[in-house]
Amino acid sequence: MVEMFLNSLLYILQAHSRWMSWNLFLAFTPLGLSVFLFRRKSLNRSLSWWLGFLVFFAFLPNAPYVLTDIIHLVTYIRRVDSIWLITLILFPLYLLFMSLGFEAYVISLINLGSYLHRIGKTRWITSAELITHALCAVGVYLGRFQRFNSWDLVTQLDVVATSLIEDLLGKRPLIIIAITFIIITILYWITKQLNLGIILRQRSFMKSRQQSSKRVSQTEN
């Protein structure tokens, strides 16, 4: 019984490790770019900055895209007979995977919002977020249903554009994109509030420690 459980566990990890690692790599690519683009001290926007900005938006849909990988969970639930493997391994594995990918999306946009605030465009933040959600909803649709990749925007832009225009003329693709946009928007708002709450608590904690250290220092003197 134990040996069967361990063999099933090994099978699940082997079956998921490669594609999950690759998808997380794609999801974290825009996060790394957001740090380079939006968190650096200089506010100058050179040619290399704009190229990085285009690459950032080309890869950004890969982060919320991980939410659609839940279809693989349904497939593997049908293959696995043990309720314990499903409950203790599959569900936590997919939850962690999707949480990490979407967290990369949220932090990327928080970095973008921070940059807009620094250049005096705070009023643009909400609009920029909504536009980004919409673009990513289109990107997720193209990736999941049309099987395009981020680099196809460079290698076969004409094919991507033609396919997108044809799809937008249909009712079903528009409904899928709209639902994806709503899901991304809601999950983003919730996750962003959680992140900002954690950041504020950390800042408050650090401020309290600094004030305590200052009072101790003054008392000793």
From TrEMBL:
Protein name, as recorded: DUF1361 domain-containing protein
Pfam families membership? DUF1361
Enumerate the InterPro entries for this protein: DUF1361
Top-level taxon of the source organism: Bacteria
For this UniProt record, give its keywords in alphabetical order, as a comma-separated list.
Answer: Membrane, Transmembrane, Transmembrane helix
UniProt organism field: Gloeocapsopsis crepidinum LEGE 06123
- Spans traversing the lipid bilayer: 20-38, 50-77, 83-112, 124-143, 173-191
